[in-house]
Structure formats: structure tokens, C-alpha cells
Amino acid sequence: APGDTVIIDDSTQGTDPHQWQYQGTGWQHCTDCDEPPVTYYNASQSWTDTIDDTAQIIFFGRQLEFFGVSAPSHGIAAVSIDGGAEMVIDLYALTKTGNVSLWTSPLLAPGIHTFTVRATGDKNPDSTDSVIVVDRAEIMVWV
Question: What local confidence, expressed as pLDDT, does residue 142 receive?
Fold first, then answer.
């Protein structure tokens, strides 16, 4: 049955479970950086356009939903669970929007899992750049 969810904001950084680990040289972060009318979850975001930069969360739970920011300059990210096959998601949109649900994992076995999002350097032909943005993750911890 549905139960608790845990939200992990992009600004919650560290190496413990339920914290974002940013790896690579291109990551930039801001807090209190809403751009009205565009708002981000907790008014923060983290972004990179450097190929193969990753953001990772070790989490306890059955499912993870990834939220980012879509915009005219945003590119294509690859997401995976537990080092499995990558799924490609396009963050391009005509209008910049924060806190956008971009991908939801399948239902996973109970236990510890790892979610990874990677900058591919690729982009939609209509996009002006290949930026990918992390806004938050929501973890369903019910068993």
C-alpha cells in the first residue's frame, strides 16, 4: 500500500543515502534562485553541460521519481538504476519550467538502490545547448 515518500532536494549533497553526489567538473548550484515566473523546488537547482558529469543518489525504497528543469537550452540526459541500462530523457522545452517530473523508475525490489543521471552532451535539434538540470528526487519508500 502507498506510504511514505522522501523528497531529496538537489541542494542536499553528501555521500550518505538520500543525498545527491555530484561527480564531474561542470556542476553548478544555486539556492534561492527562482526566476519568476519560473520556480524550482525549494528555489534551488543544479546543472551541468559537461559530458559524462553525473549526479547520483543511493536510496532505500521501491521507486524513484526524478524532477528537473526543462528549457529551450536544455539537452538530453541518461538515467539508470543500479548501473543498469540507461534510459534517455530530453529536457528540452519551448518554455523554461522548474520542478518537472522527467522520469519514474519501475517498481524495484525492497532495499538499497542507486539512481544515476548523466549528462550525455546530446541535445534535441531545437535546443540551443545540452544543459541538464537536477531539481529533486522523490522516493517511494513503501514496501
Answer: 74
Cell of 117: 543521471
Strands (E), 25-131: 28-30, 45-48, 54-60, 63-70, 76-81, 87-90, 97-104, 112-119
Q: Is 63 within 8 Å of 106 (Cβ atoms)?
A: yes
pTM: 0.96
Across 71-80, average pLDDT: 98
Give the ranges where the chain is alpha helix by DSSP (H). Answer: none
* Cβ-based neighbour number of residue 90 at 10 Å: 17
Antiparallel, parallel or unpaired: β 45-48 and 132-140: antiparallel
Would you say residue 33 has pLDDT above 80?
yes
| CB neighbour burial string for 41-56, b if at least 16 within 10 angstroms, e if fewer | bbebbbbbbeeebbbb
